[in-house]
């Protein structure tokens, strides 16, 4: 059994007991909301080593918004940003920041494992929330954010900015009218370069100026066993969700948007591996997830290796990724009468069965401005990416990863036999094997992990008849960083 799963099993009873009795320090707090369009919306940003910089710039440009708080557990990153914004107050601990009456909105761009707890604490403290994708680290805590947002009447916008594209919205509506006939497959692609993160020998020192206990927060406090603390947490299941939950969540969301599904898929299966190099990551760099919706399957493909081994160089890797039907980081909606390609966050193009362009859409509104509009209107229906949408799309990534984590290395022949009933999945798998072969990966030797086909109850968001899978719907939390069972 893997170390993380061992830890989860070992601590699951204590965690459930803690969750049952957990209370929050914010339950009695309720700061005043923005009273009118004439008042500033005061924003605090949490975490700006990466996406948070975009939050600062994007929210700061919206008329009537003022950045009043800066929060980051990394002292160096925090101090650098404070120098640029002398009018904002600095915090190392989100709990201290949430006590401020000078903050109406909390914008969260921390590592994934902090998303849900940070959002729920902020909601309970009376704040509206802009929350980066994926909104959660696991399925259960994502649903808890939805519960909290509705209970306290808070606006929670998900950072899936394609939802503010009027072009993609129009393409969705056009497709749902049957303009290209019935949808056959909604396919998400995340063909994005991901080099090795390296291999270290034993635990590494924590960078100076970081409270590592606070950085770990709700995650297991494990030794740092990779070169880089920041960013590479994406490739560790303890803190991240791989590229499926990093870049892929955007395309997963668009694919589900076209299908119009508002529950998790009835069946999900994954196959993949971390192949082509040996490093300290444990999330797959190559993966297929099959969501078996009744209307049409949603198939997601992750590839981190380039077109072939010849391109695995510093100069050529990024510029030589695979494409499929014109897309690399994209969505392709296969219909009876052709395809719709969504190659980015703000455009779409439809072609017929012969590849001739039928219709094109272009343009997007400001995602941050849409959020501020809802903060003022107090209507969550004004949000282009309400937390419920963010939860469902994030959870589709999580359930795919659960199948992967429960999988076992399997021969190509056995894999093909197991997926023989799903022709679209077979086609994706065949192309994946060809891609790996071009990169020097022989799947008969470097075997991929084939996960079980898991059955989901969309109403309860629990798997049917698989307790091991259900355990992975949540995680063991560390006091005091416990996502509350009752929000």
Q: State the helicity in percent bands.
A: 25-40%
Structural class: alpha/beta
β-sheet strand percentage:
15-25%
Task: List the uncertain runs.
Answer: 1-24, 26-32
Oligomer: single chain
Looking at CATH, the homologous superfamily of the largest domain is Dihydrodipicolinate Reductase, domain 2
Total tally of structural domains = 2
Question: Which CATH class of the largest domain?
Answer: Alpha Beta
The shape, in one word, is globular
Which fold name fills CATH's third level, the topology of the largest domain? Dihydrodipicolinate Reductase, domain 2
Number of strands: 18
Tell me the span between the first and last alpha carbons. Answer: 33 Å
Gyration radius over CA: 22 Å
Question: What is the CATH architecture descriptor of the largest domain?
Answer: 2-Layer Sandwich
Largest sheet: 12 strands, mixed
Mean pLDDT: 93
Total helix count? 15
What's the short story on this structure?
By secondary structure, this protein is α/β, with parallel strands linked by helices. 32% of the residues lie in helices and 19% in strands.
SSE diagram, text form:
Layout: H1 3-21, E1 41-46, H2 51-60, E2 65-71, H3 75-84, E3 89-91, H4 94-97, E4 105-108, H5 115-124, E5 128-131, H6 139-152, E6 156-158, H7 166-176, E7 183-191, H8 212-216, H9 242-246, H10 248-259, E8 267-273, E9 286-291, E10 298-303, E11 329-335, E12 338-342, E13 347-352, E14 357-362, H11 367-377, H12 387-405, E15 408-410, H13 412-418, H14 423-438, E16 448-450, E17 454-457, E18 462-463, H15 467-471
Parallel strand pairs: 1-2, 1-4, 2-3, 4-5, 5-6, 7-10
Antiparallel strand pairs: 7-11, 8-9, 8-16, 8-17, 9-10, 11-12, 12-13, 13-14, 15-16, 17-18
